[in-house]
Amino acid sequence: MPENAIHSNFLKGDTVVGRVNNCVERAVYLAAKQNYTGDHAHLTKLFVGDLTYKLTTDHQGEHIRMYSDELNFSDVIAINHVFINKGDSVKALSEIENYLSNGKYVLLRTITSRLPFFKRYNKHYQVKESDYTRPGHVILLIWHDKDHIYYVDSPNDLHAENYIPFPENHEVGMINKKDVMDALHLLASLFTIDVNKENLHDFITHSHSDYVTRMIQESVRKYRSSDVEKTNTGYTYTNKEACLFLSALTQEQPILLNDEFKRIEQNKILIGLNLVQQRRQILSEYLISDFPFESKNNVLADLETSIEAIESTKMFMMHNMLKGHWAFDSIYTGLLENIIRAEDNLYDALASNYT
Predict the structure, then answer these.
(1) Which domain of life is it from (predicted)?
(2) Strand order in 188-195's β-sheet?
């Protein structure tokens, strides 16, 4: 692979890809999928992870971002940062070609707004310092030939008019190499995804309840030590402190949810809540289907209550934004307090059963 990958099924009919947390996890799943011959639904096990989440702001309390802790794929899948460059698109393209030619899947982090196939493409986009310092979107590159690079990305992130599908497999996009040079000149950060097929098979076919128990214990420890940290770029609020910050924001200094991004699907609070919910949903599904201990029955109800509290908040946000009510104000306070209570109860249940 990956040359053969351009003919592979990545997205069509897949029941897992929509449940992973972000663009990195999606790329990891798609790479693992190409290396696993069993039921792809079993790969969900890879994404059972730490429940910890963080919210970051700048020093003014703006530019809010919310995300789950990164997963550790241990000796099954390795993500290696292999190259970073600004100002030399020729060198960047050469590195991409080299890794793809040697059978590697490549994750590209660049200035996506300057990529023609990206949904928010704008050839006049002015790069900001935050484009370099904050985590950004990554694109899975799977192959190249003389003139084109082939990639897979979420349909939600693709430009309706500029996306060019590979004629033999419309799940795979293709772009002329000359059309990526502008973005690569601004930033090219490359990662390779290396899948150990033997370890992947062993991981999926054997119970890893000990690993999940340790993950739960670590999640409880982090929740109990939730804090606020001042960083070089702003503030980081962990777990409960993140929801307390949002709750205080609705009462003391309400923001407009369309202030930074105009479209609902771009809203970073909504995206963040979804990431937090997805991590809990995957854990719930794993406990139900694969976890061998009866103690799971003591936590599933609290886990579901947390998931539902987050879902209610998300749906209320979307409903209000669709009606044009963009103020993140006191109408959300009670919902955020529900999340805090649900999370407190969840972690009490996890602690009493697994620590």
Answers:
(1) Bacteria
(2) 77-85, 188-195, 105-109, 138-144, 148-152, 169-176, 165-166
Distance CA 133, CA 327 (A): 28
Task: Kindly report, residue by residue over 298-310, the tens digit of the pLDDT.
Answer: 999 999 999 999 9
Q: What does each C-alpha distance from 298 to 26, 64, 208 come to in angstroms? A: 31, 35, 20
pLDDT (tens digit, 9 = 90+) per residue, 74-111?
789 999 999 999 999 999 999 999 999 999 999 999 99
**The pair of three-digit structure tokens given for residue 203, joined into one six-digit string:** 């991981």
Concatenated DSSP letters for 43-73?
A: GGGGG-----EEEEEETTS-S-EEEEPPP--
Residues 81 and 141 placed together within one structural domain of the fold: yes
The structural domain count of the chain equals 2
Its domain, for residue 16, covers 1-35+77-195
β-bridge partners, 140: 107, 152
Within 10 angstroms of residue 152's Cβ, the number of other Cβ atoms is: 24
**Pair (334, 190) in one structural domain:** no
Identify the H or E element spanning 157: none
Mean pLDDT to the nearest integer, 40-67: 90
Instruction: Give the pLDDT mean for 209-216.
Output: 89
Read off the tokens for 206. 């054997």
Q: Residue 191: helix, strand or coil by DSSP?
A: strand
Q: Which amino acid is at 40?
A: H
DSSP state of 125: P
Is 229 contained in some domain? yes
The H or E element spanning position 315 is helix 300-322
Mean pLDDT, range 254-268, rounded to an integer: 82
Residue 128: name the closest of 108, 138, 107, 114 by CA. Answer: 114
Query: pLDDT tier at 1 (50, 70, 90 boundaries)?
Result: low
